[in-house]
Automatic annotation (TrEMBL):
It is found in: Membrane. PROSITE patterns: G_PROTEIN_RECEP_F1_1 (PS00237), G_PROTEIN_RECEP_F1_2 (PS50262). Pfam families: 7tm_1. Its main location: membrane. The gene is LOC110984497. It comes from Acanthaster planci (Crown-of-thorns starfish). GO terms for molecular function: neuropeptide Y receptor activity. This is Galanin receptor type 1-like.
Amino acid sequence: MTTESYGDMLRDRGWSAEGSFEDQVWLRAVYGVIAVLGITGNALVMFTVARVPSLRSLTNMFIVSLAMCDFITSVFLIPLHLGFSIPVPDGVAGDIICRLLLSKFPLWTSFVASVLTLTCVTLERYCSIVHPFRYEALFTHRKAIAMIICIWAMAVLMNSYFFYIFYSDGGRCIIQWQSTVWQKFVGVANFCVIYIFPLSLMGFSYWRIMHNLHKSAQTMRQSTSEGRENQLSRDLLRARKKVVKMLLTVVATFAVCWAPNQFLFFSYMCGWNLDFSSWYYHASVLIAFCNSCMNPFIYGFQSKQHRKALRRAFGCSNAVGARALEGASNLSFVHTADVKEFHVNAMRNLPTPRNTEKATQNRSE
């Protein structure tokens, strides 16, 4: 059984020794700026979807869930990193405070929920573009609600070990592991479920999406050369560039923002003596927090339809913009119904031996 002082091991909670790195005013200011950006950006996403009926789609259910996760993360960032002091009483009350608040249980639970929601957004977009004919059977509003509930349940479960390792002792919080084997197991499980698995799934899914769009684009170009181009084909070919840009942004942002903190925490759980009050640990936490305030701009404000919806929600849109917005059913760059028609047209336009022979005869004539 290993026991460590909470104050010695987890100084990043905001109750630090005077003069330490984490007590720097500029560091707390940076935490505050990130928190304000996260609260504002994610609140705007939720407010816009709630105010504009045309945005209440299946895709946006996950977008709103993601915004809620990041909003909670940003809210709890303020008291836990800006120097607020909470006394730890003796007995059961002290244990509850240590396990629920000083352990950052709500913060890390919303973190995990955010990552799992990102994964669900990936799966939803993957099925929409790569398997459009199966999309409506796989994703319904009822199933989406069930997925969101499961996400939060799994996030709570992933952090439930906090209730077994945090205790109050003489007005302070301590961490007590039953064994080093159990500590390493928790570290490996968290690292795989929170980082490796989501990153691998997002990378694979988005590679398949881009590969699928590339093949469809080639088919459409071949059809265009034979004089069978239509407006839908041109629109989706242009949308392909936007899709690729967004997907690469999603994967890169997640990988970069989460990598430093996850590798440091994984190393600590496997036995490395990590200084939780060091500048490099706080840098990793700041970068991870940045993901919560960047998601609204990646998934929401990068969309022209969402920007119009935001203006309309605040009563700033003109009549033309409002009418155009009514035709937008979600925030994604490629709509499921359009992709279905895209695939149907692509299959119809595929050259067959008979069509090829006719085209050859026509050219020879």
